[in-house]
Specification:
Layout lengths: L4 H15 L3 E2 L6 E2 L1 H29 L19 H18 L6 H29 L6 H11 L2 H22 L6
Helix pairs in contact: 1-2, 2-3, 2-4, 2-6, 3-4, 4-5, 4-6
Length: about 180
């Protein structure tokens, strides 16, 4: 582990927390800037440390600090959006694996960021559907979870992936001057 890695892990966790407060409140899941920083953590820190940064974020929130878009604490396990937070831990691992040992260009970063976004959806939507079915007693929980837990996010998430693909090569060079750009 490089000397600056713990600081970058903490920085990525803090940026994700800050991203929770840049939001458009929707029901049942708010649109936030968190996913931008989640994906960025995988690009900047790689699969292991990127995932670790988001695990730190998750633990801090579950311990009670109000770093999630709707607060914090163990009760957050029962929020419809908690599955997306679980996806935040897996997404940087996927993104990091896809860009690891590659030159960062829009052609390498964009599909990796899309894959990370898909990972978040694949964990968050089933959690949301189960919540809607068991807690809210919605008979159309799956289709409702797809509509309110993915489709509404697609335009913004595509834009985030595009911005990441344009910014990441330069950011990686600034943080890791010895890396390939």
């Amino acid at each position: 582990m490089e000397r600056k890695t713990p600081a970058l892990i903490a920085l990525c966790a803090a940026l994700t927390a800050a991203g929770a407060f840049i939001r458009i409140p929707l029901w049942p899941v708010a649109i936030t800037l968190q996913t931008f920083f989640v994906l960025l953590s995988g690009i900047m820190l790689g699969p292991r440390y990127g995932a670790l940064s988001q695990l730190v974020y998750l633990i801090v929130g579950l311990l009670g600090l109000p770093v999630f878009s709707g607060g914090g604490g163990l009760a957050y396990l029962m929020q419809p959006s908690f599955g997306y937070l679980l996806g935040f831990v897996a997404a940087p691992a996927a993104v990091g694996l896809l860009v690891e040992n590659k030159t960062l260009t829009p052609k390498t970063v964009f599909p990796a960021a899309l894959a990370g976004t898909l990972v978040i959806y694949c964990i968050g939507m089933p959690y949301l559907a189960v919540y809607m079915h068991l807690v809210l007693k919605k008979p159309d929980a799956v289709s409702l979870a797809v509509k309110t837990g993915a489709l509404v996010f697609l335009p913004g998430d595509l834009l985030k992936c595009l911005i990441l693909s344009l910014l990441s090569p330069r950011l990686r060079f600034i943080l890791h001057p010895d890396s390939r750009i």
